[in-house]
Each structure stands twice: as C-alpha cells, then as structure tokens.
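user: can you give me the structure for this one chain? tokens are fine.
assistant: on it. calling the predictor now.
[tool input]
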Amino acid sequence: MNGKMKNIYLYTRYERSWHWLQMFMILLLLITGFEVHGAYKLLGFETAVSVHNTVGITWLISFAFFVFWLFTTGEWKQYIPTTRKMLSVVRYYVYGIFRGEEHPVPKRKDAKHNPLQRITYLSLAALLLPAQMGTGFLYWSYNHWEAWGIGFLPLGLIAFLHMACAFAILQFLVIHVYMTTTGHTLFAHLKAMITGWEEVDERVRIEDWEKKSS
C-alpha cells in the first residue's frame, strides 16, 4: 500500500472471543469426528465420541448466543449480500493482489466484510453450519427418533450429510487460513483478530467516505 496507514478498532472483544472459541471447537470436532469414523487412532474411540458430543452441544448453544448477539446489536447487517464491486474483489484476489494493487473495498466499521466475504460468511452461517449442527444433533439423538416420530429417516443419509458438511467446513478453514495472509502484511489480519485493531490505508478510507456521503 502506498497510503498512510491508520488504526481503527474493528472487532469487539466478543467477536474476537467467539471467533477463536468457534475455531477451537471446530478443530476439536474435526479431529474427534474423523477418529470416530476410523481415519486414525488418537484419543481412543470412546473418548473421541464423548469429546465430540460434548463439544458439539457446546458449539450449538454458543452459536445460538452468537445469532442472538447479531440481531440484538444490528451486526447482522454486516452479512447482507451485495454484488456491488464483487467482480472487482474477485479480480483482486485472482490477479491484483499479486501486483500489489489496493483492495477495491477497504474495510470500515460499518462494513467489515467485502462482497465476497459477505456471501461466503452468510452461506456458512445460514446454511453450512446449521446443516452440520442439525445432522449432528440428529445423529446424537438417534435413539429418540421413534418417540419423536422421525424414525423413517435413514441413519446412513444423516451420517453421510454430516460427514460431507465436515469436509466442506475443513475446506473453508484451509481457504480461510490462507486468506488471513493476504493483508498488507503477512500477519495483519491475524493481529487484528487478536487485538481488535485493523490497519487500513487512510487515503483510501477518506476517498471511500467521500464517495459514500456524496
């Protein structure tokens, strides 16, 4: 970046705590889940099942609190999808970033995510994670299906969908970790998610606010 850098407080303590807690739980769920399916032996089958179930229920409850926080604070607006500058963002990550170009959508307090991130995070939070949690809950509560009147559900299908969602989340994590290295420095985005403070190009932000207010 050629402009002067300016620090802005972008991520609240709750956002950062939730981010790292969720990441820790997802990693535990992936590790224990793959062990339950026989991919390797690490904790032992019974321990892996116990940890997987406990962390899974904790994740479900924590996610419910996160959704409550989104709607009570108005932060849900950060995830409203938009196609404005979408092609510019895609072009940046495919081509422009390797030429040292400026990011076409600089971060703001009221717009923390670019168009590509918005559609990705919305799909993750509204589709993939609920599907993973829902199939996991059904899998966990299999012995109660008959009493609940859903005994007609095929257990094999639920297991397949749960595993498919796990692989999709794993793929997201790999891409997400890579994207954390695409800031103006290698660890800029990582530092922001630890401290809450993000360094942005002051010149770009001023131009952005001028366009927004005009």
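assistant: here you go. The helical segments are 13-36, 45-73, 86-94, 115-140, 145-148, 155-179, 188-195, 202-213. The chain has one domain: 5-213.
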